[in-house]
Amino acid sequence: MTLQLKSGDTVALVACSDPIAPDRRVQINDLIGYLQQWGLQVVESKVLMQPHTIQASQEKANELNRLFADPQIKAIFDISGGDLANGVLPHLHYEQIRTAQTAFFGMSDLTVVLNAMVHQSHIQTYHYQIMNLVKEKGAEQRQQFYRTFFEGASDLYDFDFDFVQGENLNGDVIGGNIRCFLKLVGTPYFPEVSGKVILLEAWSGRAHRIISMLDQMDQVGIFATCSGILLGTFTEIEQHHEWDLIQQHLLKLTAKKPIPIVKSTGIGHSSNSKCIIIS
User: Fold this and answer.
1) Count helices and strands in the chain by DSSP H and E runs
2) Range of the domain at 31
3) Long-range contacts made by residues 184-191, C-beta under 8 angstroms, separation at least 24?
4) Strand order from edge to edge, sheet including 162-165
5) Does residue 134 share a domain with residue 90?
6) Is residue 184 part of a domain?
7) Count of alpha carbons within 13 Å of 86, Cβ hemisphere only?
């Protein structure tokens, strides 16, 4: 069941990855203001703005566990990104998360948490950054968010795509940011890939770096067992007009098993990116 909100519901903001810079406080307050205009009660993690310390991962996990244990909280939105999200994974209460029926949202480095919860707690999670509501395309994003999560429409889930290979792509989606997804390989938190559609997107990384990551995915058997690939935006690649190199390399890697591949500009780090369910 997908998330549905109403006036009077409570939602929470957390930051499981890198510390939130103090100068983002104004933007966060703007976000809270919009959520409150819709009648939502907003609570913050007690360590939302805390600088990184040796105990930070444990403290962030403790807060996330506390919020999942609160039956009043309908959704938890992570507003962070960066590198540090792996640190919370050993400290999460996955059985409690499974029974909580609380929606969890994040993207970028939160790819590791989204997929760990799918694998360990057997829940669906949401690849979406709620800070989009106060970015360049904020007015459009707010309209789509409200229609989707308050009115039951599909606006925030709908995105255009083109086939790179194949003609049909179906299945549950796992993955997210390519670099962060690969941080799970070899850990107990890496999800089952067999029969799944693999979502891949990236903010940073030129062609050589992304090609090396695709090679790693191929070498650990992901492309041999998944049902297809959904490519979102690769911001730095596209800024430097290197997308053809990536596409050609991916077609080469999948030549023996030509799985469906689609490309969309609607999923990724841009301020008008859509939401996709990870399951």
Assistant:
1) 10, 11
2) 10-157
3) 184/86, 184/112, 184/115, 184/116, 185/216, 185/220, 187/86, 187/89, 188/120, 189/89, 189/112, 189/115, 189/116, 189/119, 189/120, 190/115, 190/119, 191/115, 191/116, 191/118, 191/119
4) 162-165, 261-263, 228-234, 197-202, 173-177
5) yes
6) yes
7) 13
Residue identified by tokens 């403290």 is 59
Q: Decide: helix, strand or coil at residue 278.
A: strand
C-alpha distances out from residue 104 to 101, 129, 213, 262, Å: 9, 11, 27, 26
pLDDT of 171? 95
Residue 172: φ, ψ to 5°: -65, 150
pLDDT digits (tens, 9 = 90+) for 158-181: 999 999 999 999 999 999 999 999
Tokens (6 digits) for 62? 């403790």
Tokens standing for residue 231: 């490519």
State the DSSP H helix or E strand holding residue 98, giving kind and residue range, or none if neither.
helix 94-100
Looking at the structure, tell me whether residues 129 and 249 fall in a common domain.
Answer: no
Instruction: Please answer whether residues 264 and 270 qualify as being in contact, where contact means their C-beta atoms are separated by less than 8 angstroms.
Output: no
CATH number at residue 104: 3.40.50.10740
Q: Which of 185, 86, 148 is nearest to 274 (CA)?
A: 148
- Band of the pLDDT at 1, cuts 50, 70, 90? confident
Which residues does 224 contact at the CB level (< 8 Å), separation at least 6?
A: 218, 257
Average of pLDDT values for 73-80?
98
d(C-alpha 235, C-alpha 175), whole Å: 17
The model scores a pTM over 0.90 = yes
